Each structure stands twice: as C-alpha cells, then as structure tokens.
Amino acid sequence: MERFLTDETKEMLRRKALTRFRGGMTPYLSKLVHRSEATRRQFIPSWEEGLDFGQDAPFEEGRALHGIYGLERLYEDRVLITPYFDCAAYCRYCFRKTRTIAGDRRLMMPSDIAAACDFISKDKRINTVLITGGDPMADISITENVLRSVAQITNIVNIRIGTRHLLFQPTSFSGRLLGLLREYRKDIYPKNISMYLSFNHPDELTLEVKSAIRRIRDCGIVLRGHTVLLKGVNDKSEIIRDLMSAFVSEEIVPYYLYHCMDVTGTAHLRTSVQRGIDIVSSLATLSGTLAPQYVYVTPVGKHRVFPNKVLDYVEIDGSRYIRSLGPYTASKFKEFTGKTDLPRLHQESDDGLIVSHYLDGNDE
After folding, report:
1. 46 Cβ partners below 8 Å, 6+ apart?
2. Facing residues of 303 across strands?
3. φ/ψ of residue 96, rounded to 5
4. pTM as predicted
5. Which CATH class is domain 2-310?
6. What is the Cα–Cα distance from 81 to 65, expressed in whole angstroms?
C-alpha cells in the first residue's frame, strides 16, 4: 500500500494518529529508541496508525467491573486490579492506546480498593490477583496500597504484578520500591509474589535493565517474561529464540508470547497467527525452558495455540478469521462478568463452550 500513497497523505495520516492516540516516552527510552530500530518501531508514531483498521476496545466487551473502579473479572480463579490507568511511555500496539479508552487517568481510591478486596474475599474460588495497568510501577504509592490490602485476603495465594516500566525507567527499581518487594519474599510471607516483565526484543535487555532485573531477583521475587509478537520487530524465529535465551540467562521464566490484538492502528504490526505457530514450532526442538505459551486474546479470554496446530479459517465480511472452540463455558463467562450475552463474533456450542472468531493478521 505504501507505494500508492503520497508523502502528503502519509503526513495527514500521521497527524490523525497523533490526535487519536497517546504518545510519549521517558528520557531513558528515548536514548534506546535512537540506538535500536526494533525498539523505535514500538514507540514512534507511524502514519500507518492513521489507516482505518481495528477496534478501539478489542476486548472491552468481556470486561466486568462489577461496579468497582479498577476491578475486572473474566476467569473463575483470578481477578485483575488496575490501580493506575497510565504509563510512563506508550507502546504503539497497546489495547488502551486510544485517548478515549485511556479515560481520565484517575487512580483507584481507598474506597475502590476496599470494595475490590471485599468482592474478592467473598468468593473463595478466587486465589490469584493480577495487579496490572496502565503500569502499576509508574505510581508506587497506589500500588503499595493495593498490595498491602490484597495480601490480607485469606483466600489469595498468588499475587502477580505486570509491568513494562522496567524498560521505561530501570533506575526507578531501587530504594523504596525494592524495600516494598522485600517485604513479600516467599520465605517470610505466606503468599507467592511474582512479577511479569514485558520485553519484545533482545535490544531492550540493556545493561541498565539487566541490573534492575537482578535487583528485583535479589528480593526473592519470581520473574516471568511476556512478549508480544510484532511484525518488523521480532517476527523471526532467531529473534524470539535469542530473547527467550536472554530471559533464561537472567532467571526470567518465558511465559506468554502474545499475538498482537486487532487494536485500532495496528495493522502494520500484526503478523498472521500462523507466523507465531511457525516460531513456537521451531522452538519446540530446543530446551523446554525456551518455550513460551503462544496465545491470542479474545473478549472471552486467552486461546492457547500449540506448535504445529492446524487453524480453522472462516471469512467474515471479506476478512479472514480464526474459528476456535475455547475452554470457556458460556454460563461461566456470564456468571463471572455479570453479562447476559456473549460478545460479538462469539457463539455458544451445543455442549455449552464458547466458539470464538479472531481476526487474523498478515505477513505482507
């Protein structure tokens, strides 16, 4: 498509993207962007973001706030708490990239946190809380309040913290933050505290970042790695292999490899799902420590895609979708989310499971 567009049209599309989406980065990240093309592609706004594609809220239909700001429940055994709906920098593939979804950036108030903890404590099936964002590490004070409150819930065994802030401000992982993490060491506290770190390319694991990783690790925190498959960034087997090897070297457990969601303005970053299958299949011949779980996310939850899986394609309104029978039942989805209907492009099968249709990407 690029060869058919004039420079003036591209500039118009770029301005459209700047108006519609959030942008910005930290001084540390700005220096890395100038050294790494793979990192630059993830953070510098492109004219391609102005093309008509995708959804402003790709899985917002599946969110369930239960009237409590910052609380979401989609699964039986775990909930998400988002204490802070902002970040220190903005990834171009983020599902909350639009200014409308970003909202007013308000924090969870003490009353919100108390209501969330009350909700969790009343359902003993919930044993895991994921503190996510935005980025919870961007405002330590509010995350500290959430962590201390959640840790008092007797049925909570696992507390997970998801962050990409390590790439944005690695030096911030010191002092007060490390002191907070040390309070929750596994050997002195009856909870399993883990941190999920998001990195997409080996270039991101700089000396400063590795030093911060080791400081966190020395606090006794379990580390797991998340990666998003992105066209032109890491969509080659050798890049993912090198990244997973770097994870293992830093004692980060490779966890999820996510297919990029069909967020508005991300067509240029989305590979086919098959490309991800080819990558994880190539890793299957190596040590099991290098093998992340490959998933794509729909409004009803994650769908795991295993090596050598054969995809079931259907065409809807001229676009290619992947049809999949997930592990989730329609009745449980409605119970956990409080919704009466399934999201668009989802149906209930004869045996009560949910059939999902997921928009595929392409490798052109």
Report:
1. 14, 17, 92, 268
2. 296
3. -115, 35
4. 0.92
5. alpha beta
6. 10
d(CA 93, CA 264): 9
Q: Name the CA radius of gyration of the chain, rounded.
A: 20
Please state at what angle helix 273-283 crosses helix 237-249, rounded to 10 degrees: 50
Kindly report the backbone phi and psi dihedral angles of residue 286, in degrees, each rounded to the nearest multiple of 5, phi listed first.
-100, -175
**Long-range contacts, stretch 121-125, CB < 8 angstroms, 24+ apart:** 121/153, 121/154, 121/155, 123/155, 124/155, 125/76, 125/77
Q: Are 253 and 247 in contact (CB under 8 A)?
A: yes
How is the chain split into domains, by residue range? Answer: 2-310
- 92-151 pLDDT tens trace: 898 877 654 444 567 888 999 999 999 999 999 999 999 998 899 988 888 899 999 999
Three-class secondary structure assignment of the chain: CHHHCCHHHHHHHHHHHHHHECCCCCHHHHHHHHHCHHHHHHHCCCHHHHCCCCECCCCHHHCCCCCCCCEEECCCCEEEEEEECCCCCCCCCCCCCEHHHHCCCCECCHHHHHHHHHHHHCCCCCCEEEEEECCHHHCHHHHHHHHHHHCCCCCCCEEEEEECHHHHCHHHCCHHHHHHHHCCCCCCCCCEEEEEEECCCHHHCCHHHHHHHHHHHCCCCEEEEEEEECCCCCCCHHHHHHHHHHHHHCCCEEEEEEECCCECCCHHHCCCHHHHHHHHHHHCCCCHHHCCEEEEEECCEEEECCCCCCCEEEEECCEEEEEEEEEEEHHHHHHHHCCCCCCCCEEECCCCEEEEEEECCCCC
pLDDT tens, position by position, 226-259: 999 999 999 999 999 999 999 999 999 999 999 9
N residues, the chain: 364
Q: How many CB atoms lie within 10 A of CB 164?
A: 22
Place of tokens 């997973």: 244
Query: Which of 71-85, 220-234, 304-318, 343-357 has the weakest average pLDDT?
Result: 71-85
